[in-house]
Amino acid sequence: MNTEVRGDTEVLSGKPLAALIQQRAHDQTALLDDQGLRPVLAVVVATDDESTHWYVRSIERAAGRAGIGCRIIDLGHDATEQVLASVLTDLSAEPGVHGIILQTPLPASVHADRLVGLIAPEKDIDGANPLSLGRLAVGQPAFAPATAQAVVELLEHFEVPVAGRNVTVVGRSAVVGKPLSLLLLEKDATVTICHSKSGELERYTRPADVVVVAAGRTGLLKGSHVSANAVVIDVGTNVLPDGSLVGDVDEASVTGVAAGLSPVPGGVGSVTTALLLLHTVEAARQQSHATLLTASTSRI
Ligand code: NAP
Q1: Is 228 exposed, middle or buried (CB count within 10 Å of its CB: 0-12, 13-18, 19+)?
Q2: pLDDT (0 to 100) of residue 5
Q3: Which of 79, 203, 255, 273 gives a 20 to 30 Å CA spacing to 35?
Q4: Largest distance between two CA atoms of the chain
Q5: Residue 289, pLDDT score
Q6: Is 52 a pocket residue for ligand 1 (Cβ < 6 Å)?
Q7: Predicted TM-score of the model (pTM)
Q8: Which domains, ranges and CATH numbers included, belong to the chain?
Q9: Is 199 near ligand 1, meaning CB less than 6 Å away?
Q10: According to the annotation, is 52 in a ligand binding site?
Q11: Where does NADP(+) bind (predicted)?
């Protein structure tokens, strides 16, 4: 594998893996196309935040390249919970839509936890419905949140073993830290989860073979927090006042200490978008299969 190395630290770029996953999504879409089925992803947006709109447009462009339909439903920053609920309920019931994302941030007045529960589990391609998280917890099939899965895929792509290894995850959100910890546990890692009340992080990160940081705090993880040979995956995305994007890892001090570090941008984020597309294609395939089964059983 052709990889960049900075001061003994391998740069774990997500871009080549993202390209492979996009190609897989494209190939599978072509197969479905032969059967007259075009996967469609719906993205529900309710914010004025320019960086969110930029991100959603990047999903739309990537979907187009993979032959996947993408419907952006922009309800405006003042959308009510009632309107959001009704749109999600309709999309969940619409046969022509196979995947649904409820994009954050959402208006402060709405209860995001209630809304994600309205996304039909079979269309919940970003694992937002608590049912999906529950299924992951008991090892049943479900779409994992794409970011959490992107971390696991990135580790596998760079052949970083996790079975029997100590992995420390910094962050315990329902969209990243918790599902990621469940996925790693499923892969036989010994997982330690840290959060804002954990105290000195180095107590948990220094003994770790792999450290994943998903806290949304610029410069949280420094070189002194990790041991040599550790692999560090940076999930954080923080926008600096000058508009540039950085992660949670103090790249300057970790470079030269850790064995590998994923960059921001160009690390986990690019893999995440590609996985959203692959999940949409898989959802479309599963739903068409379920429809065929229902049709054939009703004829018996
Ligand atoms: P979140 O809901 O705000 O959760 C942050 C987590 O980090 C919480 O569990 C919090 O602990 C913990 N935390 C905060 N400060 C800490 C500290 N000083 N020490 C240890 N733990 C600390 O955020 P999220 O949605 O999980 O996202 C995390 C980061 O990932 C953000 O930067 C986000 O933008 C990024 N992200 C990236 C992608 C991608 O595709 N690249 C996708 C999703 C999210 P408590 O639970 O105690 O509050």
Answers
A1: exposed
A2: 80
A3: 273
A4: 67
A5: 81
A6: no
A7: 0.95
A8: 37-122 (3.40.50.10860), 146-269 (3.40.50.720)
A9: no
A10: no
A11: 171-173, 237
